[in-house]
Amino acid sequence: MFSRIKDFFSQVYIEMNKVVWPSYQELRGSTYLIIVFFILFAVFLFGIDWVIQKVIRLFV
User: Fold this and answer.
1) Domain ranges of the chain
2) What is the pTM of this model?
3) Cα 3 from Cα 16, distance rounded (Å)
4) pLDDT in tens, 19-58
C-alpha cells in the first residue's frame, strides 16, 4: 500500500517537472484578455436582456 502511494507521488513529481509555467508577462496579458472578454460578454448580455424586455413590453 505504501509503495503505491510512494509511486503515485513520484509520478506526480515527474509530471510537475514537465509543466511549463507561464511567465509574469504572459499571465498578466491573459488576465487582461479575460477581463476584457468578461466586460464585453456582460455588455452583450445586457443588450440582449434590454431588447427582450422591450419586445415583451410591446406585447403586454
Assistant:
1) 2-59
2) 0.64
3) 20
4) 999 999 999 999 999 999 999 999 999 999 999 999 999 9
